[in-house]
Task: structure prediction
Amino acid sequence: ATSQCHTMTQRQSRTSSTSGWYHTCGGSLIAPNWVMTAAHCIRYVNCRLLLGKYNLKLTESGSLTVAAEKIIVHELWDPSRLANGNDIALIKLSQSVAPSSQIQLACLPAANSILASGDVCYVTGWGRLQTNGALPDKLQQGPLVIVGYATCSLPSWWGSTVKTNMVCAGGDGLISSCNGDSGGPLNCRAANGKWEVHGVVSFGSSLGCNYYRKPSVFTRVSAFNDWIAKVTASN
Result:
């Protein structure tokens, strides 16, 4: 893997065969035929995945549209209890995708690795630019500072809503993930310069996207390495 090993995937849905496609979630290409996203994104059977995209309004050379062959949601995911965690799903593509200048495989972190409080990572997506704001055409990226579990689980932050299999990042009231970023990656640079996807956008505050001491909350990928390996090997 190279330092460019992260590819953003866009997931689109539609409500009927005659309606148009629309953006629903982000994702990460973790193998030639597997995309990692959030379990809460899996609400629509009729979906397709766009890889190698930057501007959703343009037909871009090198981008691909691929159908989903199979969707596996984590068996402990409970849509009525978001705070329980396990907000992760894998989508098997109908065809394998060859890496290119625009499409690279995302690198997973080492199992059980924990980010240090104060580390700076980057969230990317086509989510809203602000609370109740517009959806952008171009892929957005924002730096987020990691907030350790000891702080994030304080009553004045997220309290018991946050679990150890989650990652908190942000909370400065300035930059955060927002509606539409769900399923997308939190990319962090390792000591060797390689980018790794440490988080999957899970949830934020109902009070707003850039709420002070309510950092964006991600599924911690390093807690699910074994599950990812098992699912991809058996499907």
Remarks:
- Confidence is low (pLDDT under 50) at residues 1-7.
